[in-house]
Amino acid sequence: MSVFSGIAPKFFKHGYVVFVIPVMVYSLSFGSMVAEGSEISDLASDLVKPILSLSGKHKIAVSQIDRSKSKISAGLSQALVERITNSIQQKIGGSKISLMERARIEDIMKEQEEFQDVEEFSKLLAGMGADIVIFPTVARVDDKTIELSARSVGVSQKLGGKVLSASNPVRIDSPISYTIKVVGVKYGDVFKENYKSSLISGLSKIKGIKITQDASVYSTDFKATSNLEFDITTKETVESKEAKQGQNVLKAFSGAFGSIGGNNPLSGVMGSIAKSTNPDDLKLKIISVTVETKLVNVLDKSIITVEESGEKEVPFTASKSALKSGLKSLVKSILQSSGEKIAARLVGVKVTKNKKAGLLD
């Protein structure tokens, strides 16, 4: 469900219309965002009071937050804009000021293939009829706290780019978090849908990571793709080497007894024993898998890459189905490990591993 759905007009006694935008619970709680209602309300008051003193009718639009500068997630950005919008809506009730419909702003956002910067976005809003645009600004104080402020700027011909008001900064508890769209897992040029869930499982192990199906630049921070390769080789074992040496000894004795002449039974016995033991059966098959996972930032196209690899031993005599099963389990394990590792790097935490644990444990 879209965070902008369910918009309904509310009519005030003076005949002006303000669109009431219900705030979804997940938006308010995204990234453990905790802010006193009075703080956002005070911020809205700082912005609205000077605007209410203007003569004539004016339409306000709330701009998106420039995430490339603020270093916050798409989900948190949307949640902040929602809260500011709702607070402003409450402050302008019964006045000559109205809010631009969020449904119209959402339509603009959906049409944008790339994130528009503040100046470009304000031009779009002005073209849609906005007289005043609210520009929220976010700065991350530390890995758990952000600071929010905002200013209102006239964008109509009459108001001519004037800064009409500015708020005092508000601090909000908001740990680092990101939204990821998982594109898929590729082997060669083919996407393998059966393995996508393993990558998602690994990414989701890290707190602060949210998986989304929405690929919009306004709803997604990163896109994830994994590329896998595998190889199956043969490995000599101590047992296979000993069996081969023993076989060579028996063949040598068989040849020696055979050279004596006559129908020597020992030669035949030793030859039969040598043939009955196949050293190859004591070898191992080694399944090797390498996974490269990439996270592409939807805003600046920067890339984070993690490569994980692992091996699994199976008997040389293993059936094709057993070999296939071993390969699948190894691929899923490494995909999960790769996803967890790259998500941990993204949010700046370390992956805890058992001392003796490996990919196959």
Terminal Cα separation, in Å? Answer: 40 Å
SS content category: alpha/beta
Strand content: 25-35%
Give the class-level CATH name of the largest domain. Alpha Beta
The CATH topology of the largest domain is given as Rossmann fold
- Whole-number tally of structural domains: 3
For the biggest sheet, the summary is:
6 strands, mixed
Task: Report the radius of gyration as a whole number of Å.
Answer: 33 Å
Could you characterize what this model shows?
The strands form three sheets. Strands 3, 4, 5, 6, 7 and 8 form a six-stranded mixed sheet that branches. The protein has helices spanning 25-29, 37-52, 67-70, 74-91, 102-111, 118-127, 196-204, 238-259, 265-276, 320-347, and strands at 8-11, 17-20, 58-62, 97-99, 132-142, 145-154, 163-166, 170-173, 178-187, 190-191, 209-212, 222-235, 284-297, 303-315. It folds into three domains: 8-173, Rossmann fold, CATH 3.40.50; 179-235 and 283-347, Lipoprotein like domain (Double Stranded RNA Binding Domain), CATH 3.30.160; 238-280, no CATH class. It has 361 residues and is an alpha/beta fold. Helices cover 37% and strands 28% of the residues.
Spell out the blueprint of helices and strands.
Blueprint: E1 8-11, E2 17-20, H1 25-29, H2 37-52, E3 58-62, H3 67-70, H4 74-91, E4 97-99, H5 102-111, H6 118-127, E5 132-142, E6 145-154, E7 163-166, E8 170-173, E9 178-187, E10 190-191, H7 196-204, E11 209-212, E12 222-235, H8 238-259, H9 265-276, E13 284-297, E14 303-315, H10 320-347
Parallel strand pairs: 3-4, 3-5, 9-11, 9-12
Antiparallel strand pairs: 1-2, 5-6, 6-7, 6-8, 9-10, 12-13, 13-14
